Amino acid sequence: MSTPVKNQKFNMLFNWFDQGGDGLLTHDDFQAMGELFADLDTSDDHANASAMRDAFEKWWQVLLAYGDTDGDGRITRPEFLTLMLANVTSPEHFGEAVLAIADALMRALDTNGDGVLSHDEYVRMYSELGVPPKHSRDAFRRLDRDGSGSISHEEFRTAITEFYLSEDMDAPGNWLIGPIKAGV
Questions:
Q1: Looking at residue 1, what is its pLDDT?
Q2: Structural domain count of the chain
Q3: Phi-psi sector, 71: left (phi>0), alpha (psi -120 to 50), beta
Q4: What CATH number did the domain enclosing 69 receive?
Q5: For each successive 10 residues of the chain (184 residues), what is the average pLDDT?
Q6: N or C: which terminal CB in the chain sees fewer CB atoms within 10 Å?
Q7: Contacts from 59-66 at CB under 8 Å and sequence distance 24+?
Q8: CA-CA distance, 134 to 127, in Å (whole number)?
């Protein structure tokens, strides 16, 4: 059963993934998201970019396998919300479809190789992914749980996990792609 918090987050995610803006998710949308994320990797090592593309492809395949009941190659918003709760966030798919992107993204964005994301690295990443800096600056503050001035790999994974799995309205990870609002 969907909770209001998860429903709101997954609706935000649907809007973000709908790169074609047609109210449906398609393979093209997921390929575009994969490219958007892959383009964040500016290193000569293309493994992270490939890992992000592959993870978005895996995510798309899970959506098709479990939710494209009419075989038209498109996922509607209601189908997506149901699939996110029942399949994508299930333990057998969550690591391959979501955490794989987070791990590759962390490696790609840690441009100075210190194992953490600085404020500037974090805000740049989300700005390039279409999240307004005012949201990413606030998210950074919330996700830097130890107050070190940076986000560790573990803090980033925790935030991703909270965004997808937590029903707690106040979980810091809920701020990954913008604020959620109580009662919406």
A1: 46
A2: 1
A3: left
A4: 1.10.238.10
A5: 80 93 96 90 80 88 87 93 83 81 82 86 85 87 94 92 88 84 57
A6: N
A7: 59/30, 59/88, 59/97, 59/98, 59/101, 60/27, 60/30, 62/87, 62/88, 62/93, 62/97, 63/25, 63/30, 63/87, 63/88
A8: 10
Any domain includes 144: yes
**Local structure of 108: helix, strand or coil:** helix
Three-state DSSP state, 115? coil
Tell me if 180 is assigned to some domain. no
8 within domain boundaries: yes
Cα–Cα distance list, 4 to 39, 98, 159 (Å): 33, 21, 19
Q: Which domain covers residue 99, as residue numbers? A: 4-175
Tokens at 68, concatenated: 């494209």
Strand spans (E) along 24-166: 25-26, 74-75, 116-118, 150-152
Cβ(31)–Cβ(56) below 8 Å: yes
Asked if residue 130 lies in contact with residue 143, where contact means CB atoms within 8 angstroms, the answer is no
Report the alpha-carbon distance of residue 69 to residue 171 in Å, rounded: 33
Distance CA 9, CA 89 (A): 13
Query: What whole-number distance in Å separates Cα of residue 82 and Cα of residue 123?
Result: 31
